[in-house]
User: What shape does this take?
Amino acid sequence: MFNSFFDHSKFYINDKPFFPIISSDIQNETANTVAIKADCSNFSTLIFEEELIKANKLKKLGKYIIWDVSLGLEDPDFLLSDELQFKSILQSLNYFITNIFESFKEISIGIALYTGKIPRYNSQLSSFENWLNANPFYKNCALEERHLMYLFNCELLTDYMRLIAPNIPDELPMILKLDVTEIESNAYLVHLLSKERFEYFLLALKGAKVALPAISWESGEGILGKFDNLSSTSYKKTPRVGVCFASSQRVTQSELVQFNNIFDSLSLNNIDYRVLDEVFATEQWDGLDFIIARKNSLSPVGIRMLQGFLAAMGTTIYHELPIGISNEISFDEFKKTFR
Assistant: This one.
């Protein structure tokens, strides 16, 4: 059975690593995958003649398809609580999957369900204060309000997507294309797009400046593939260094500043790395020789994880304060000796 999926470091087709080079242009010879747009919003005509023509061409060319579907969620006036609208979208999506996807499932490797900036849903603004009260840590962690608003809207988006998810075939990865160019802080971006929040979605990021498990969309970083960003189609060298990022409940403004310092310093020293979520670190450290961590952001679970990494012959790098792991070395010493 044909299948495609992803993890923290690679995309796979039929259990074999695959680097998707995606283009919206069916004529692009460099691409191994083409994105086909399809309207499944509340206003869709459900006529997919052009999409069928393109898909049949790609089948003959031996290329894969990403279905770039519009559900209308990019509209700030989209009503998340409108049940009739939700049912209408599901009907359109189910019609598309039954009548279009099923005919090309052997070459379909993903479905993009959102394209745009981090949303700001006007109908939900009055619920922001209730969300803060239900999440007292966020209310007291001194993060800037605009950052908290991003978090709030991301959770609204992922909650809605989880309602849609049961209607998507299991073998079809769900992709969210997010334009994050306006988010200047690398550390905040890592916090915002944590696997704790986006565990079941493959992200395609526009303008990201930090090495996340995502596809690079048009510009910026992304280690899982490229989407309309064909300036370089070669694989990056597999990083040997990981940065263990704090769990959501331990992120403060001061910790974000320090993680930004780590990311900036690694880039300045041309050290390739990838980010690990503390909560999922044990399943993400494969292939790493070093993990950089901060004592002030680690939970007891994170410390036990680093002890397990030591047992697996890995080395812990501490930033600022020693953590207490055997054979750990300082970040400054690491930068001087790493080759």
Summary: Residues 241-337 form a domain with the Rossmann fold fold (CATH 3.40.50.2300). Residues 145-164 form the longest helix (20 residues).
